[in-house]
Description:
- Keywords: Carbohydrate metabolism.
- GO terms for molecular function: catalytic activity.
- This is Alpha-amylase/alpha-mannosidase.
- The chain is about 45% helix and about 15% strand.
- By secondary structure, the protein is α/β, with parallel strands linked by helices.
- The chain folds into 4 domains: about 300 residues, 7-stranded beta/alpha barrel (Alpha-Beta Barrel); about 160 residues, no CATH class; about 120 residues, no CATH class; about 170 residues, no CATH class.
- The protein is globular and about 95 Å long.
- The relative contact order is 0.07.
- The model has no long low-confidence stretch (mean pLDDT about 95).
Amino acid sequence: xxxxxxxxxxxxxxxxxxxxxxxxxxxxxxxxxxxxxxxxxxxxxxxxxxxxxxxxxxxxxxxxxxxxxxxxxxxxxxxxxxxxxxxxxxxxxxxxxxxxxxxxxxxxxxxxxxxxxxxxxxxxxxxxxxxxxxxxxxxxxxxxxxxxxxxxxxxxxxxxxxxxxxxxxxxxxxxxxxxxxxxxxxxxxxxxxxxxxxxxxxxxxxxxxxxxxxxxxxxxxxxxxxxxxxxxxxxxxxxxxxxxxxxxxxxxxxxxxxxxxxxxxxxxxxxxxxxxxxxxxxxxxxxxxxxxxxxxxxxxxxxxxxxxxxxxxxxxxxxxxxxxxxxxxxxxxxxxxxxxxxxxxxxxxxxxxxxxxxxxxxxxxxxxxxxxxxxxxxxxxxxxxxxxxxxxxxxxxxxxxxxxxxxxxxxxxxxxxxxxxxxxxxxxxxxxxxxxxxxxxxxxxxxxxxxxxxxxxxxxxxxxxxxxxxxxxxxxxxxxxxxxxxxxxxxxxxxxxxxxxxxxxxxxxxxxxxxxxxxxxxxxxxxxxxxxxxxxxxxxxxxxxxxxxxxxxxxxxxxxxxxxxxxxxxxxxxxxxxxxxxxxxxxxxxxxxxxxxxxxxxxxxxxxxxxxxxxxxxxxxxxxxxxxxxxxxxxxxxxxxxxxxxxxxxxxxxxxxxxxxxxxxxxxxxxxxxxxxxxxxxxxxxxxxxxxxxxxxxxxxxxxxxxxxxxxxxxxxxxxxxxxxxxxxxxxxxxxxxxxxxxxxxxxxxxxxxxxxxxxxxxxxxxxxxxxxxxxxxxxxxxxxxxxxxxxxxxx
Length: 796
């Protein structure tokens, strides 16, 4: 009978990063060369763990493992939602791994649920705790097609009320740090033993009694081994990881489970190739007949807890001061800068608590005229979110009062979105890092701004009341702006409504010479009229359109006029569409003024028919604003490009002579050379983007090296890797076509010549799978496929 078990848990989580007005993550420059941090970490961690490589002693690929099939794990619901939309192969591999684990582990799957948006539960209101747990469970059920047995608490922050709610909802166990146990007893009739400094034995589960009839099992993960994985480079070597786990067993003749828990991102993101160390250790553990790799639910079913425990309430795994990291200046920080403080955390929470209380009062007051039970409707709103909101009829049939008008349904959805955003504003990352000006804190403030926008028509004092508290949150950056200044400067400018969406569509049409898209982020645009005229560098656009939000179903029919002066100078005015006559009159007068070449008169007409307030290019949403500005600056540079190219070619030989004679190279020539080479580099990037071979790349890099000019090759590296992976996919579909293999080899040769060190793990795995599928026909392999396998270090 096996008495030694090993359970490895990964907590996979990213904070929600979507723009709350667009429901899309905008570009994050700090994640370069990736679009955003979700995309980057998916590439470095989530995807590699679905196909973790195992190498032989010659560093050749000998096997591939889906780690999720063998480890315990939880994924944040908002992260899974992103993966479902943006990386469906990885998403499906995670679901498939859990389904496979159910079959392997006596009907118990590896996946755990997670409280919905990583709210610190001990600091949450009772209603929020309930909704967070309900939403987490329902999200899990929809994705994994089964009931969750365990649930991960964000930051393992725990209190008895949260455990009671979890237990009443059918959750059987959770995972905590050893430091969160207060006292224990090995059997019901034993005496309680008080613990100090995380001394509880983590090799057994414990029963935590919550009432006479209610209890939940708790596993305490092994702190030293988990810390070694997260912070002490244990993942540098898979053999050491395996040995560390095996050496943790004691000589006790009783069932033992060595269980560890870390951020799942340790396996690949925080520690490069950490997923490979994990897969190697797992594969080696499978060889052992005296040890079973298990998950928490299976172990709990085999060995129910006999010992009991009492927890330390309001404690967490990432704060030595209870839950102070999310409520005050407790001393926990990332950078440990002695001159900095985190006093901003308390007023940030106070401001959000004020907003929460006002939002809840409004929700209850207004919601009782729409819903049978507003709070029951909120708990069930997760079903609408999981359906991506196309069908709201069944939801209102279940929760709405009879004979609701269209405007009542819109108001009901606005109130539910108020609640969703005001819960998202409590995402733990908003307090975790060192300053209120960080992207994580700004994100929770964006959710707060969306909540304020919905409340404002009912409660006009809410913004100033909120800012009066937030002003006490002082940034550590000079000149030490206060939270209210940060909010006004960085957040309010992002607030969007239907008129701004209409303006965005119109301004974009001016620059890109196409009518507004029918679908723009989470909005739909229906054009009723569209007129565009040009005169020299100037453009006038007049349009009538209806903009509809797919989130709340609210819509507005709007009249729009945009006047483009050239460069980045554009003015766009928006007003409510009053009547066909008024619109026709305005359109005629604007076109007449435009044709008369009188900019002043056109401005007067726009002021008359619209308002003096207007939108400009800076009001475009981030992605499109960057695209437009790049196009404009590109056009500007192209106008001068000929002069720069001529200067570079004319003086190149003389400059080479100066370099060879070790003479001073003029800065002006270096600047012109950098411009010329970057311009040619962009042409090579375009070739790669269109699936062509960058035949001019090598010469460009040789020239840049000669002039000692550092070009940004991040995009080139990414595109070459992407192209090789695409070709490997074609190779798999064609079952080893020699011509495709030869094309991959050409790219590998290029990488060697230009010393481009790109990550080729996915290509290596693709070739491995081709060879594995061929089986006994290995001797018939084309020479090019054999060469490719050798080049990618795949064992034949």
